[in-house]
Amino acid sequence: MASYLVTGSSRGLGLALVARLAALPKTEVGTIIATARQDKSPQLREIATTSSGRVQIVKLDVTDESSVKEAVAAVERQLEGKGLDYLVNNAGVSDWSPTGLDGMDNLNETFNINVTGTHLVSRAFLPLLRKGDKKTIINISSTVGSIAMTESYGYLTTPAYKISKAALNMLTAQYAQQYARDGFTVLAISPGWLRTDLGTDKADLSVETGAEKVLDIIQKVTPDQNGKFLNIYVPKSETQNGASHYDGKEIPW
């Protein structure tokens, strides 16, 4: 039974990932640690209440080192001496700047959550991950962070988000390189354009589909995929372009 920790679990993809994990057999998924900055989400609490103790909610602000440290201690107690198998860094924010770079006034805030927060959490949980069997870190990224695909997303005026996701991809590569010798597998996954607060209701995939497809990748991860940037796979989407292209292959950096 593998253990999972998902950040940003109060809504959107994080909430859907926790729900999907809780629905899987106990023989596949054991303890599920759902973290959020505010642990007041009624949907998350309902999932935890009906999970027979498998889902544990832990308060965690990824930008606050004290909060991260307290969360590590809480998770260590929940695991009762066992290690953590999978860390899913999902917490993140986006921006909207109609004038593009001229109106980008939240780069530091966006970067702090999407990149620095991922680093703080990953670094803090390394000791528990070392004790786990899978030693896997998943960073939820986006194809908009692909420098090679910049022209495809020129119409999106979310410069801070794009910049932060590109930096997150490099952070992923750095972790993959440094900790490969210790048996870790670290990769970035783009979950697709999802109908969430971040993705808007115009997106072409439900958040449940995104969670299902992301977990399809996570549960089949091999050490050979260390340092990769992967797309989800959605049948019949291979002929689509841009945000609607989900071929299950590597995404260009």
Tell me about this structure.
With 253 residues, this protein is of the alpha/beta class. 37% of the residues lie in helices and 14% in strands. The chain is built from six helices and seven strands; from the N terminus they run βαβαβαβαβαβαβ. The protein has helices spanning 12-23, 42-49, 65-79, 107-131, 159-179, 207-218; strands spanning 2-6, 29-36, 55-59, 86-89, 136-140, 185-190, 229-231. The chain has a seven-stranded parallel β-sheet with strand order 3-2-1-4-5-6-7, with helices on both faces. The longest helix is centred in the middle third of the chain and has 25 residues, at 107-131. The radius of gyration is 17 Å and the shape is globular.
List the helices and strands and how they pair.
Blueprint: E1 2-6, H1 12-23, E2 29-36, H2 42-49, E3 55-59, H3 65-79, E4 86-89, H4 107-131, E5 136-140, H5 159-179, E6 185-190, H6 207-218, E7 229-231
Parallel strand pairs: 1-2, 1-4, 2-3, 4-5, 5-6, 6-7
Helix pairs in contact: 1-6, 3-4, 4-5
Name the features:
253 residues, 7-stranded parallel sheet, single chain, alpha/beta
Structure summary:
This protein has 6 helices and 7 strands, in the order βαβαβαβαβαβαβ. The chain has 253 residues and is α/β, with parallel strands linked by helices.
